[in-house]
Amino acid sequence: MTSTHLYRVIGFLMLCMATFFTSLHTQSLPTEKPSPRVMSIDWTQTETLLALGIQPIAVAQKSGYDSWVKAPAIPDTTEDVGLRSQPNLERLTELQPERIFISPMFRPLTPKLSKIAPVTEITLYKQGNITWDGLKTFTRTLAQDVNKPQAAEDLIHKSEQQLNNLANKTPQNTPPLLMIQFMDSRHVRVFGANSIYKIAANKLGLQSAWQNETNAWGFSLVGIDELIGLDSQIVIIKPLPIGVADNLQQDRYWQYLVNKTGRPALMLDPTWSFGAIPSTVRFAEQLSAALLTQPHSQENP
């Protein structure tokens, strides 16, 4: 055998050995199952799936999500199958999801949806469950169901880092926060215990001004006359119902209420009040930014 042939044989054997050991190494590595084709009815699940890197093949009420939740944005390629309470079952059948996620609010849909794909109900909003630990549990549960457990840990870790960084630069001399959403010009939801707004505020080192009892969704529905006398920083979360902004500009009682706090009200862009970790972090980011720019960049309705 010539030296040239010998080198060729040795090279071939080395290539075979390298391929063999690479194959052994690859086989020994844990593999993550592919994520199923999923559809989500509930926006809280939708925002969390997107934050986990999962693009649902379909969602409900995409335009409503864009108005109330906003981020993470739903990709254009995700189908909108209509109302959350009455999705288009024919179109959903055509899309062939492998799993459909719902929350207890939409449980009546289960019999019909289960004929299309297995239905998974995940509960988050119940009395006493909306804590940071509760949000982490929800995230991990959803991630497990789409075969993305590591994505949940990454999202939680990144979110905790973001909240810590925000807390370090948020003014700590801020009065307790009176966090509200207008239902009409005379009635508001006031958020306190069991709300992600309170979680976000607390993570920033701030407190909620509303100490009254709240419902399972974390708010009390009250007239604006019940807000008087609270030493607080008023925080209004959009969107405002049609006509409310104009009414507040002329409402002497509202102006008196704001003036009594000694500081203008802050106006924040929409953040899903019934969300999970993504909405909590987003609200914290907006709140911190608004407090940092006060009093120069405020809207005072």
Account of the protein in words:
- With 301 residues, the protein is of the alpha/beta class.
- The chain is built from 11 helices and 10 strands.
- The strands form 2 sheets. The protein has a 5-stranded parallel beta sheet with strand order 3-2-1-4-5. Strands 8-7-6-9-10 form a 5-stranded mixed beta sheet.
- Strand 2 (58-59), helix 3 and strand 3 (79-80) form a beta-alpha-beta unit.
- Helix 6 packs antiparallel against helix 7 (149-169), helix 7 (149-169) runs parallel beside helix 11 and helix 8 (196-203) crosses helix 11 (277-293).
- The longest helix is centred in the N-terminal third of the chain and has 26 residues, at 3-28.
- The radius of gyration is 25 Å and the shape is globular.
- Mean pLDDT is 88; it is low at 296-300.
- SSE sequence, one letter per element: HEHEHEHEHEHHEEHEEHHEH
Largest sheet: 5 strands, parallel
Q: How many strands in all? A: 10
Radius of gyration: 25 Å
User: Level of helix content?
Assistant: 40-55%
Strand order of the largest sheet: 3-2-1-4-5
Mean pLDDT: 88
| Low-confidence spans | 296-300
Structure classification: alpha/beta
Distance between the termini: 93 Å
Determine the number of helices (DSSP H or I, runs of at least 4 residues): 11
**Strand coverage percent:** 5-15%
So what's the overall shape? globular
